[in-house]
Amino acid sequence: MAAEFNQSTRTEAGSRSEQLAAKPGDVECDVCTGVKRKAVKSCQKCKASYCQTHIRPHMKNARLRSHQLTHLVDNPEEEEEMCKKHNKPVKLFCKTDRTCVCRLCPILDHKNHEFAPLQEQYEVRTLETLAEIQKNIKRTEQQIQEAKESVILKREASDRRMAEGVQVYTALKHGVEKGREDFMRTVEERQQNLEKHTQEVIKQLEQQLSEMMESSGPNLHLMMGEQTPPL
Prior knowledge:
This protein is mostly helical. Helices cover 58% and strands 7% of the residues. A three-stranded antiparallel sheet has the order 2-1-3, with no helix packed on it. Strands 5-4-6 form a three-stranded antiparallel sheet. 6% of the residues are buried.
C-alpha cells in the first residue's frame, strides 16, 4: 500500500513538473536543473529569469526584495535599465544631476532641469570619449617622440664629451711624452758637455805637465830622488 502511494505521489509530481516545463517559445528558468520550467519573472539586478518556485526568494528575502523584477525577456542582460524610483525604462539623461532618468523623473523629481535623449547623450559622450582617446594618443605619441629625441640628443652630447675627453687625454699624453723626451735630451746634453769640458781640462793639464817636465830637465829627476844615468 505504501509503495503504491509513493509511486502515485512521484507520478503526480512528475506530471505536474511536465505541465510547468517550458515549451518552445517560452522563457526558461535560469536556475532549474534537469527539466527547465517556464519562467514567470526576470530580475534586472541578477540578469536572470526565474520560475514560480525560484522567484520566491525575491519575494521573501529583504535584500532581494530591492531588486527590480520585470516582464520576461529572453536575455535579461540586454533588457533596458529601469528607473529605480518609478520602475520605468530609462530614456533620458539629466544634464543637471548627471544621471539617467525615466520620463516621469522630469515631472516628479527633476523639475526645471536640463535633459537630453539618452541615445543622443550616449552618442555625444561616445564622441567626447573618442576625442579624448585621440587626444591622449597624440599626447602619448608626442611624449614618445620627445623621449626618442631626448635619447638622441643625450647620445650626441655624450659622444661629443667622449671625443673632447679623448682629445684632451691625447694632448696630455703627447705633452707628457714630449716633456719626457725634452728632459732626457737636456740631461744627456749636459752630461756630454760636462764630459767634453772635463776632457778638455784633462788635456790642458797633461799638456802643462809635459811642458813643465821638459823645461825642468835632469834637475826635476834629482828632486824627485831619481839617479842620474851614468855617463
